[in-house]
Fold this protein.
Amino acid sequence: MARFIRVMPKAEYHVHLEGTLEGEMKFMLAQRNGITLPFADVAAMKASYQYHDLPSFLAIYYDGMKVLVTEQDFHDLALAYLAKAASQNVLHTEMFFDPQEHLKRGVAMETVILGISRARAEAAKLYGISSGLILCFVRDLDPHTAMEALDAALPYREHLVGVGLDSDEKGHPPGKFAAHFAKARAAGLKVTVHCDVNQENTLAHIRQAIVDLKVDRIDHGGNILQSPELVALAKQRGLSFTVCPSFSGQVRGEGGDIEVVRGMLDAGLNVTIASDDPAYMGSEYLTEVLIRAQRRSNLTKAELLQIERNAINAAWLGDEYKARML
Ligand code: ES4
Ligand code: ZN
């Protein structure tokens, strides 16, 4: 079964590029940029990756990304992830990034986007992997800075496929960003939002996302199983869900996404599986995450193929391109 998962063609839509920053690269970039990390070595740093909830994870994740400064840094980060994904037979990936965190530190939007895009072009040539880029609004920062990030990115519109909404969900419903999503849509971008499992008011957030914002995808979203009405609506819309069993497995013990994969599949939802923040989750990339999900939910080979078919179908690419991949 593990071999089947390893060789199966795959696609990934829920991976935060800053969450693919491996300890070794963090040390290398810190040295290159003259930044001192408060750890003796990579092992000590990795040992500090202890989380008990989403905020305690996010604090470590945001602190870690401070070593990303130059265009070359963003290039190296993206190329390393794309090489790893391609080595696992990921044919296509759409990657999140959190520009507000970089703008805040004085790193220009151009530096971030052009570095990542240079890596995307190289990876397409070197490894045959295609990719898209999704600008995430950091929902617990001032919404005004999210609008500034969008405005700064729009001159680079052709480098993006969509916008997302991530970070700490508590007290920050998707509806708070309605104007941001409307502006992104007007520019032809797709929309997805994180509605993480077992956060506060998750069902209300899912309803806002589907009914009010008419999102194109939902990230996580497993609490939808509590509402047959919303399940029916999601199916009617053909919405896909990006479920991250590894992240939830590590942050909340046995709770979270790993618990909902079987139920979501049985409910007939378009489930896709993704790695979220692999460098912070024991370096579990898509193959390892699928192996974890397979074991926990007793997924059959047919179901695994269905999950990856769902993923290919959910790509924010033209139909002609998708037909070639299938
Ligand atoms: C994130 Cl809400 C959330 N979950 C996992 N990784 C993240 N990176 C930024 N926001
Ligand atoms: Zn995420």
About this structure: The chain has a mean pLDDT of 95. The chain is about 50% helix and 15% strand. The first strand starts at residue 10 and ends at 16. The two ends are 21 Å apart (CA to CA).
